[in-house]
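Researcher: Quick sanity check before group meeting.
Model: Go ahead. Protein one:
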Amino acid sequence: MKVTVLGSGTSSGVPVPTCRCEVCQSQDPKDRRLRASILVSQGDTRILIDCGPDFRYQALRAGIDKISAVFLTHIHFDHSAGLDDLRIYSYETPLPFYAEPRVARVLLEKYDYVFTKPYPGAPHIQLNTLLPAGESVLNPLELPETDYGFTIDRPLSATTGIAPAVDIPEPAEVRSHVVLPLYKVTVGSGADALEVLPIRLLHGQLPILGFRIGPLAYLTDCTYIPDSEWPKLEGVHTLILDALRWEPHRTHFSVSQALEVVARLKPQQTFFTHMSHNIGFHAEAEKRLPEGVHLAYDTLSFDI
């Protein structure tokens, strides 16, 4: 299994616009951080976790030519605003998209041109509700009353007065929202299959999801891991974990809090992500971390 860090920065990214601190002016590529996201690959199966506003550039930089499925940790736009850039990955085959109900609701509202009033060229996304095991639907979705179809006003030709032919595809059921209590999701098949297990986290007061994929756990944007979720993380080999900065923060782990999680789980290797410019220079911050713990950086890629 291969893991590629597409972005390791917080919501503002690094450098921060208007900031003139030494870190934001650093020429070290490891100090330049796009919004947090990873790609997990096994054979022909490729899973994208989060798709923020930097996704198009991240995809070009990483050479991503296929995506098998997308999982969202939460709706904050630094993790979800790249949805429209997925259109190129869904022209031939609908792209499965997994999110919990509160997130799916916002997607349906904010991206109506994709789901409820689709138009030609919009991403073909199959939106699935994802629920951690044992949970009931939180804030159940009230699906909009719609036939999931669309119409196009065909402009008349300026010279002939005849409406030009326009290829209007039939509304596809992939435009609708599939409401299913999916506790685990298997993406791919055979030796390339990857099983994705959702992990409940708290991001301040907001319930969000982390994910475990085999030996990997990806836990970003968190301040608390409920007691029920620790058993799901036992035996994890590689941990990618939120560590915004050295100082405490209301909605993210600080470095010291993240290290408490590392001490409890004892993974073989840990990479901190979702870091702000307050983390300092990559090269200097690395020296302050214990053995086996590192700062992630954009384009970092490794096999497990």
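Researcher: Fine. The other one?
Model: Protein two, sequence then structure:
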Amino acid sequence: MKITWYGHSCFAVEHAGYTVLLDPYYPDKVPGLCLPTLSAQKVLCSHQHADHGAAEIIKILPGPENPFTIRTVEVFHDHHSGEHRGANTVHILETDGIRVAHLGDLGHLLTPEQAQELQWLDAVMIPVGGHYTIDAAEAKQVVNAIHPRVVIPMHYQGHGYDYPVIAPVENFLDLCENVHEYVNNTIEITLDTKAQTAVLALPSIVRK
């Protein structure tokens, strides 16, 4: 399974010629970023805010049968049961024994029941920047609760991009072990991928 980061919380998950795109953002909605023209067989959005819900700008392609089993866990975008920012959907994709999850704009620590649904993932895409989502310390608590093998941070402020009110990824990395900083924006997840915190590089195609 290949996971590709397109900035902010947008990822493509690919397997067997089939692509699922998660949380694409509209042009001019994420400072310093502009999503290129992308295509996929399926688009999933954690919620409908403009920096996560731009499904309509993605070209939907015909393709092979969907190899993924897709499950969801309903959570909230804030610490107040959705009163401030609404609901948020976690998507879990599984195929050929590999199970990954995209947490969207998770805004709170998981309940025991929610954590049980996400135990022992092969990879998790998790927000770490705070303000709109869980912050670095809360993200580490979520990781400790669900024990994923590969942790891919997202939704953080980079050098010259993303929202200035959210924190840089370094705040999260300071709490982590086995940090691997990639020189590109892709990672292959196999049954043999070593446990790590994987920091994918922002691709130049999304920089304004």
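Researcher: One line on it for the slide.
Model: The chain has a mean pLDDT of 97.
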